[in-house]
Each structure stands twice: as structure tokens, then as C-alpha cells.
Amino acid sequence: MPKLIFDLLYDIINEFHNDRKTLLSCLSVNKFWCEITVPILWRNPWNNLTVSNEKFLLNLLIKHLSDESRNNLKNQGIRFSLNSYKKPLFNYISFCKHLDLCRIHGLVIRSEMFIIYDEILRLFINENNKFTYLYIPLDFNRPIHLFPGFKFCLSDIEFLSCSTSLDKSILSGLIGMCKYIRKLELRIKFNEALELSLIKYARRIQSFSLTKSPNTTDFLSHLFNLTSLRLNGDYGEEWNCLKHLSLPFLQTLKIGGFIQAKYLANIIKSTKGYLNKINIDIDHHSDINNQRIIQAIYRNCPNLKRLKLEIKNNNISELEPLLRSCKYLNKLHILKRNNAITNWNNCLKVLSKSSPTNLSKFKFDCRDIDEFQLDSLELFFDNWKVRQPMILQFNFYINLNIKYKDFMRLIDKYKKKGNIKYFVIKSAI
């Protein structure tokens, strides 16, 4: 087969690298398609892996074991089926670029074959493999830093997800390999040694995720080139490290838990108009603080495309300048927290009047459908007839009463008219 055709087919199949179902169907076309698809499928074999498929994957990994490893396990009481001695058609592990120790840990725990844990790890951690993504579980304590090939196979890591409470000997080994990391996801509090090492390479890091407030401010202040930031805080934590943080190239901001509004507003103000995705899922802000965040968004985010945010009842008037300023907004998710009251009828009026041309995807969180007046919904749908059809999702407690049935009839009416392209309800229960 000419290389040009091979390259073209590879590029086409690679477009479906996140679509496991399509990739699996490509395997059965013919041998040529199979040889192209297997490396793509095994680049991240953990992607969309279901519990029902875990046993199959574990059995396939066992087939990769050497005769020496198999005999050692056999001497320790492990019995293998005859099928497990049959060598696989490919060296599947050699194609893997995502080393997900969290999923491997889960495979072993659920199989109750704890004795094979280190043997499975050695299949991945050796001098024959190279990984770019590394995920380490919270309580991981296997001595992988002692495995031959540890430094070689992890020397090109670009993404690291781990807990800062990781065993010091493993952590010290990782510190020496930080120079290529561009995406970093840390859980629990900062480790001082890790922080000092990462500061050296901070300008290369483009994506950063952190749960719990760091002890110091030094590291975050060095993330000058960050394009994606995700923070999740616990109640009572003071995120002083965000006070003077400047992230001029930030494109994605995701916030959860308890983080002070004044700091979030400061981060948004420090960006230079690059922010295109904001997800703020918190439930303790006052009306004034909620207003502060909304105003920071519409004054500093002209290129915003996706927004997830609570809009408190007293701040619905702030929705109009937000919609007018963020002209590229195409997806809006309005949250509802605790027992807060939202005047959805006023909200729909503002959306009908001021939504930018590209906005067509909506998610609304509410307690139940009784919070909406059907005539307000009908007016909202009717006013949408000159726009591109909307994709609409409601999240509420489903109550099969008369109003719910009338609501569904209204939805069907405007689906038939073409005002609504796609509609879904997700129960809040």
C-alpha cells in the first residue's frame, strides 16, 4: 500500500481518536485498517473504559507477561487459563502514551489479583516504552521509581496528575523530569520541594489544576503563560495567592468549591481578552459578589464563547450587558444553587432580547418546571424563530403533573416548527 494512502487513511481514522465505538468498528474492516487503528486505539486504552470491559483488558495485559513473570506468579499460587498463554497479535502496550496508574490500580483491586500488581506495572514501566501523560492515584505506594527504565519511560512527560502527598521517593524521581510538563494537575496541598522544582519550568506550563489552597504564593505567580486554570477549594480556605495573580494569556477558567469572589474577579480582570471559556460552579457568593464576577466578565471577556455561572435574581439585569458585550457567546449554562429564587420569566425576556447571534446552546438549572410560566417559555421559543435552532437542556426534579405534560407539548410544538433542534431533560434527583 503506497505511503500516501496510508497517511491519508491514518489521518481520517485519527479524527475519531476519542470515539471508541468507531475505532472498534475500524478494526474489523481488513488487516490494513486494523494495523492503522490499533496504535490509535491503544494510545489511550483507558479512555471511555467501562467496568464491563476491565476484565477483558486485564486478560489482554496478562498475555503480555513474559514466561519468567508468568512462572513466578504461578509459583505464588496464580493459575492462568490456557488462553492467557497465547501471545497477542500486537505489542499493544508499546502504543500506549497515557500511563494511567489510577485505572491500573482499579483493574487490580476489582480483580482481587493483588499479587500481579507489580508485574502489570512492569509491563508499562521499562526501557521499551515512552509516555507523555501520567496519572497517579492518591494513595499510590508501589516502588515504581526502583523499576528499570523508570526515568527513561517518563522522561518526556507533558501531563502530570498526582497528589502532593505522594511517596517522597517517587516524587523526587518525578521532580527531575519536570522540564517538559505543560499540563499539571495537583491534589491536596503543595509540596515545597515540588514547588521549587516546578518554578524552574513554570513558563512552559500551559494548563494547571489544583485542589486546596497552596501554602505559598510563589508558584502560581510564575505561571505567566498559563492558558487553562482549574481551582477547587474547601470552605474556610483563604486563597491569598490569587490576590495579585496576573494571567494575560488565560483562555479557560474553571472554578469549583469555595473560592472568594474578589480573587476570581481579579483573575478575570488580569486577562487580556483571551478568555473564551468560564465555568464558575460555586454556591456561597452574595448578590454583590455575584454581580462583581458578572461585571468582570462582560468588561474583560469580549471573546467569551462558553459560560457556566449562577445569576442571582437581583442580578438578572446584569445579564443584558453580558450578552451584548460577549458577542461570540454560543453556550450558556445558568446555575441555580441551594434554595435561591430565580425569576426565570425575566431571564427569558433578557435572553430573547439581547442574545448574540451565535448563542444557541442553553442549560437551565431549576428546582422544578413550576418555576417557569408556560406563556413566558412560549414567547421565548416564538421569538427564536429568526435565529439558528437552539439546543436546550433543563435540569430539574421531574414531577409528572399536568404542567409537566403541557411543558412537553410546548417543547414538541417548537421542535416541529424548527425553533428547537435538540432537547433533553436531566433529573436533578
TrEMBL record:
Its taxonomic placement starts with: Eukaryota, Fungi, Fungi incertae sedis, Mucoromycota, Glomeromycotina
Q: Which organism is it from?
A: Rhizophagus irregularis
Q: Can you name this protein?
A: F-box domain-containing protein
InterPro entries membership: LRR_dom_sf
